[in-house]
Amino acid sequence: MARKTRTSARKKSDAARKAPGRKTGKVRKSGPAKNSSARRKKSGQNPALAGVRLPAPGKARRGEKGYLGYLLRQAQAATRLTLERALGGLGVTPPQFAVLTMLRAYPGLSGADLARVAVLTPQTVGVIIRNLERDGAIKKEPHPVHGRVLQWTLTRRGAVLLFKCRRHAMALERRLQSGLSTTSRHTVRRWLAKIAADLHQDGHSEVRKSSRRPLTRTSRSKER
Question: For labelling, which of 37, 40, 144, 185 has a CA lying 20 to 30 Å from the CA of 202?
């Protein structure tokens, strides 16, 4: 009888330990606790990534130690973003401002030439032209010499809009020139213009070389 009593008590004890509501010495971690633990474990496995901070613009590889190509791109991106914010109040984008500026400086440009001088794609220029015409900023007028040829020109509204945009652009221009002497400004301008001219010339040379190259059997099959 005593043996049966001890056996039943042991079974009850085992059942109580296996019960789901039973609290044991091991505490189960909740979802957030598990995630934080996993992050700590992961960061512990990659000590080289812990506490890594990107350098600010102008520092380390994003400064004087960086590559010229990257620094040019970084400066252009910062300039465009600043101009974009300044023109936002007028409802004008930097590409639209570029097209208005070039139409004012070089009236009668074709779409391809306008895209080239504004440093935009022909598709982008086509969209911009349609939007500016819809907003009444530009219109087509007969060429002063060749009357049958129509060219895009700024309307009065477009000229006023361009004037307002130029105020923001010139403020940015002054900010870019601040701290530079007159000689330094000329040096920077000559350097930037030379980069564009040299690389542009290299591109034309490659196009001429490829056009003179005889077609091989493989290239003929690709063209078909």
Answer: 185
The CATH number of the domain holding residue 94 is 1.10.10.10
Residue 209 domain-assigned (yes or no): no
> Is residue 155 a contact partner of residue 136, using CB atoms and an 8 Å limit?
yes
Rounded CA-CA distance 69/77 in Å is 12
The torsion angles phi and psi of 154, rounded to 5 degrees, stand at -80, 140
161-177 CB burial, b ≥16 within 10 A, e <16: bbeebeebbeeeeeeee
- Residues near 111 by beta carbon (within 8 Å), at least 6 away in sequence: 122, 125, 126, 129
* 127 is a domain residue: yes
| pLDDT given for residue 223 in this prediction | 42
What is the per-residue pLDDT for 126? 93
Residue 141 makes CB contacts below 8 A (sequence gap 6+) with 150, 151, 153
Which ranges of the chain have pLDDT less than 50? 43, 219, 221-224
Could you give the number of structural domains in the chain?
1
Burial string for 114-134 (b: 16+ CB within 10 Å, else e) reads bbeebebeeeebeebbeebee
Pairs from 70-77 (Cβ < 8 Å, separation ≥ 24): 72/195
**Secondary structure E strands in the chain:** 138-142, 150-154
Asked if residue 196 belongs to a domain, the reply is no
Give the model's pLDDT for residue 87: 97
CB 154 within 8 A of CB 69: no
